[in-house]
Amino acid sequence: MTKTVLDIECQRALDENNPLNTTLPSDAQLKRWVLMALGDKSGVTELVIRIVEVAESAALNDTYRNKKTATNVLSFPFEAPEGITPLPLLGDLVICATVVAREAKEQHKALHAHWAHMVIHGVLHLLGYDHIEDVDAAVMEKLEIELLASLGYSDPYIENGTQ
Cα(116)–Cα(60) distance, rounded to whole angstroms? Predict the structure, then answer.
């Protein structure tokens, strides 16, 4: 089996005065979480992670999901045009730093544990996992819990748990 080679373009699109800039995960942390989610998938994979402000998240969420509010993570899987040989592109994740920080605080979670969860959750969506149907949600959540546990983080689905 070929080892996964991961090329991540990390775009930090926060205003330079945003205090959350000092709390963002490093490129190395983001890559570690992506690799964890990819598991034994092989090949060269390219991924963009864009960390954004509320306005950009809300605009994208409105355009692509018809929801007018910002959200924690949006996943945009790469789809090769018809007739084009598939490329080693996984897709794009757009993560709203403000929403992630707010959720971590409200849910009493360590900030980096919640970042890890959002990255893993987003990558699983890029791999085709979903949580619309209960049975699919159970599969995806079980995998997220296992992956996060292997990183030393608690179950992200425990309400108001401490991490």
Answer: 22
